Amino acid sequence: MSCSCCCCCDGPVPNSLHYVLPGIITGIIGYLYSSFVFFAQNRVLLSGASSWEVLFFHCLTVLLCWSLVQTLRSQHSLLPRQTLSKPQIQALTMQKVTALSDAHIEVKSNGAVRVCRKCRAVKPDRTHHCSSCRRCVLKMDHHCVFLNKCIGYDNYKFFVLFLGWSAATCLYQSSLLFRYVLAKSCSRAATLHVFGKLGFFSPHLLVGKHKLQWRIVSVFVGSACLGIALACFYVVHLYFVANNYSTLEYCEKRADPEYVNYFNIGVVRNFQEVFGTFREFPYWFVPVHSPSLLQRDGKTFPLNSKYIKVD
């Protein structure tokens, strides 16, 4: 999988895209939801669906929007700017990390501390400078051009939940439409074996009562395609969580045969690093910070004792 598929951004994003793509994403969400509510919901209920099934769809939509808002409003992944002078920066770039107590696993090729000259700050482990946001981001995963937002330590959980709830909402919506609205039409198609004889596939789609059927079909197709795509992205990020990778780390370092992921502390603990402890299990599914993670600063991370040994 290429880095571009994960929305990694190595260079500045054109200003014209800063709000265009987020606007498109918001428009798609609004179109699919409003089309279901105003054109399909009554037909779904009249065709035998229970009110609980429809209510569940609305709950999924709320979780989707909540996760999106939390992802966008988070600002705590940004590393505070410092006021290091040029001599201080020069001295730090020459200072080699010699012990684990220096709290730096990631160093420059010469063994020195990583320093961001643009933010004039020492970069903690897993911190990267985003050329689009023009700030250093703690545990930077990637810059998502579709949301015009850096995904990092503070909002990565929200982003993963956004992918998961978006996929669930789209797939569940398409399931409702197919089972209660389009199933009869598909059954008729199987009987006739000729799609051109179907009313909602005919040239008369755009007039009269066929217009409504066409809208429902378009929402079904759009929801199904989006749901499958989002589910794939969701599974990819679950893989990253299970192995304690960020998208940047996976793209940049996986090809290095000598690369060792010191931050991989086991699948269970890796998930707890993102979602919280088992006692906080209900927090795993809602876009709010788990209490245990609020005590962390995003600058230091547990290390795998298999690779790191302290005397």
Question: What's this model, at a glance?
Answer:
GO terms for molecular function: protein-cysteine S-palmitoyltransferase activity. By secondary structure, this protein is mostly helical.
Plain-language structure description:
It is a single chain. The chain is mainly α and 311 residues long. It has 2 domains: 3-77 and 153-241, no CATH class; 86-152, no CATH class. Helices cover 47% and strands 5% of the residues. It is built from 7 helices and 6 strands, in the order H-H-H-E-E-E-E-E-E-H-H-H-H. The chain has helices at 20-46, 51-73, 86-94, 156-192, 210-243, 247-253, 267-275; strands spanning 115-116, 121-122, 128-130, 135-137, 142-144, 149-151. Strand 1 and strand 2 (121-122) form a beta hairpin. Helix 1 packs across helix 5 (210-243) and helix 4 packs across helix 5. Mean pLDDT is 81; it is low at 1-6 and 201-209.
List low-confidence stretches.
1-6, 201-209
Integer average pLDDT? 81
Number of strands: 6
- The portion of residues assigned to helices is 40-55%
Number of discrete domains? 2
Give the N-terminus to C-terminus distance in angstroms: 39 Å
Radius of gyration: 24 Å
The proportion of strand residues reads: 5-15%
Q: Would you tell me the structural class of the helices and strands?
A: mainly alpha
**What shape does the CA trace take?**
elongated
Q: What letter string, H or E per element, gives the SSE order?
A: HHHEEEEEEHHHH
Instruction: Order the strands across the largest sheet as they lie in space.
Output: 1-2
Q: Largest sheet, described in full? A: 2 strands, antiparallel
Total of DSSP H or I helical runs spanning 4+ residues = 7
